[in-house]
Write a structure and sequence with these properties.
The chain is of the alpha+beta class. The protein has a single domain, classed as Factor Xa Inhibitor (Irregular). Helices cover 33% and strands 15% of the residues. It contains three helices and three strands.
């Protein structure tokens, strides 16, 4: 059976923590900052931990090698 490949798009967007959770960047921060509330911009800085349901799917289909 051939090796499972990691999706290169997911490789650039997600990272796994030591405990196996998936870290991701927060959406809606690329452009158009003036029209967004300051509170939203503040809360969306840095990275976040993905929800467990989405993380399971990402690990199974996009990052199979961990």
């Amino acid at each position: 059976m051939p090796k499972m490949k990691t999706r290169s798009g997911a490789k650039k967007r997600f990272r796994l923590t030591g405990s196996g959770k998936v870290k991701m960047a927060v959406a809606f921060k690329r452009h158009g900052m003036r029209k967004r509330p300051t509170k939203m911009l503040r809360q969306h800085t840095g990275t976040k931990i993905m929800s467990a349901q989405d993380a399971a799917r990402v690990k199974k289909y996009f990052l199979p090698n961990g």
